[in-house]
Amino acid sequence: MSINSEILSASGAGSSYLYAVAQGLMGLCGFLLLLNFRDAAYRVYEFFLNHGPFAPGPGFGPVVIRAVGGILGLSLTWTAVSTLFSS
User: Residues 75, 31: contact at Cβ < 8 Å?
Assistant: First the structure.
């Protein structure tokens, strides 16, 4: 059995806490996108515009990126908090 499969199959309390913390950090990134921290939404839009396989179409802009970031931030933070306080 390899080390990677042992890590993936670990079902202890420590791994669930680590997973919850990772979700919390991703939720924080979503909230930072929502608040447009350091022009993050515009930088993400510009990255997709210049480096994507195809250009973003109409209706896709920094406002959409901010809204999706806020929704993801809220859901990931809620999941992380409920995981941390469920045990």
Answer: no
CA angle (77, 78, 80) in 5-degree steps: 65
| Residue 40 one-letter amino acid | A
Locate 11 and state its tokens. 């079902």
Residues 6 or more apart whose Cβ sits within 8 Å of residue 68: 33
Q: Is the pLDDT of residue 5 over 80?
A: no
Q: What is the pLDDT of residues 38-73, one digit of tens each?
A: 898 899 888 888 887 877 777 888 999 999 999 999
**CA proximity to 15, closest of 23, 72, 74:** 23
Q: pTM for the complete prediction? A: 0.72
For the chain, the farthest-separated pair of C-alpha atoms sits apart, in whole angstroms, at: 50
